[in-house]
Design goal:
The protein is an alpha/beta fold and 222 residues long. The chain is built from 6 helices and 10 strands.
Length: 222
């Protein structure tokens, strides 16, 4: 056995939580869960990130904003959908489930989902993506159809990956403080191992930071 566990990419109902408890192994999750019994976790503010991303698009004048998200079995994906929906509802608009699509977070998934949006009867003028990889795939799908990203359509990512500043156009994204997250995870595991804190006392919600670039902007239209 190991002394402690980091459990990543948490699911809404995550069986690994109960497994670690039964084995009596200290653990910290990177992400939250719907577990009834509190546990130690570190997370980025996914809901706020996608609220701000969607709010930014609304402020640019976009009316039809699509969401390319991960599977809703993951807690982070549910939070991102909630942030997106909160911004849409606050603006007085109706949520359209037909432009809320779910994939596997990859470039190929972003490409395929964006292609399906671009052939729909009402093409979105903005797309908010769960990862930079999905956004880069969406940009490729737009380029294939002669649609200029940043002028004809807005696209945002999440993660501030190394590729995001080098794609064409450079991608507007959110930095999620990954190094601060890792530091808090390590510190939290040490606290548990030293019996310096209870699992229910260890909760870190890291802020997110917008990184504006050229892939989004005011609505001009397709």
């Amino acid at each position: 056995w190991v002394d402690a566990l980091l459990i990543g990419r948490t699911r809404v109902n995550d069986p690994r939580i109960e497994l670690a408890r039964r084995a009596n192994i200290p653990f910290v999750t990177y992400g939250r869960t719907d577990s009834v019994e509190p546990h130690a976790w570190v997370d980025a503010d996914n809901e706020q990130a996608f609220y701000l991303a969607t709010r930014r698009q609304l402020d640019f004048g976009h009316q039809r904003i699509a969401l390319l998200n991960g599977s809703l079995e993951y807690y982070f994906a549910r939070l991102r959908q909630e942030g997106y929906a909160r911004a849409i509802i606050e603006s007085g608009r109706t949520i359209d489930p037909l432009i809320m699509l779910n994939g596997d977070l990859s470039e190929a998934s972003g490409y395929a989902l964006c292609r399906s949006l671009l052939i729909s009867a009402e093409v979105p003028t903005s797309i908010v993506c769960a990862t930079d990889a999905m956004a880069i795939g969406a940009i490729a799908a737009c380029r294939e159809r002669g649609i200029t990203v940043g002028r004809d359509i807005s696209i945002l990512g999440y993660g501030n990956s190394s590729a995001s500043s080098y794609c064409d156009p450079p991608l507007t994204t959110f930095d999620h403080q990954v190094f601060a997250n890792g530091r808090h995870i390590g510190q939290s595991l040490l606290q548990l191992l030293r019996h310096e804190a209870k699992p229910s006392d260890i909760h870190y919600l890291e802020p997110v930071v917008l990184v504006p670039r050229q892939s989004d902007g005011p609505r001009i239209g397709l």
